[in-house]
Design brief:
The protein has about 150 residues and is mainly alpha-helical. It is built from 4 helices and 2 strands, in the order ββαααα. It is about 45% helix and about 5% strand. It has a two-stranded antiparallel sheet. α1 runs antiparallel to α4 and α3 packs antiparallel against α4. The protein starts with about 25 loop residues before the first strand and ends in a 16-residue tail after the last helix.
Length: about 150
């Protein structure tokens, strides 16, 4: 018998390869009598978490999605759902970038615009990811409750 991963010859009853150390899968018998290596074993699938009514936030998904999409970079959607700290961080980054870019435009110092521009892109990507998470129902409020209801 040969190792499925590195090709080294190993004993027929070996559990692990002596060269690469990988676990060997048992040989399964097919209906026609030809032995074939079985597919690698997969970890058992995690059972899906059932969301209980007490795990659903009173905030509506539509309002959070609209705030995240249109005003997301300013952190308004995070402040609305109660994540005050990260909302303030988003707002501070956005305002820092705007002030920094405006200062550089006024002072004609364009060599430092790249830092502010990269931060501006980062905060907008953060808001876009938040909007996508809201739309797919994976966004949580400050209490860890899912924001799932579209209307009240």
């Amino acid at each position: 018998m040969f190792c499925r991963y590195c090709g080294t010859e190993i004993k027929a009853d070996a559990i692990f390869c002596t060269k690469c150390g990988k676990r060997q899968q048992p040989i399964a018998e097919q209906g026609n009598g030809v032995a074939a290596a079985s597919a690698p074993a997969r970890a058992p699938a995690k059972p899906k978490k059932v969301i209980q009514p007490q795990d659903i936030s009173p905030k509506t998904r539509l309002s959070v999605a609209l705030l995240a999409f249109f005003l997301g970079a300013s952190g308004v959607h995070r402040i609305y759902i109660g994540k005050l700290e990260t909302g303030i961080v988003q707002a501070a980054i956005l305002h820092f970038c705007i002030i920094f870019i405006m200062r550089n435009v006024i002072m004609y110092e364009h060599y430092t615009d790249i830092i502010a521009f990269l931060l501006l892109v980062a905060v907008h990507l953060w808001a876009l990811v938040d909007a996508i998470l809201v739309l797919v129902g994976k966004f949580k409020d400050e209490n860890g409750k899912y924001i799932l209801t579209w209307k009240k």
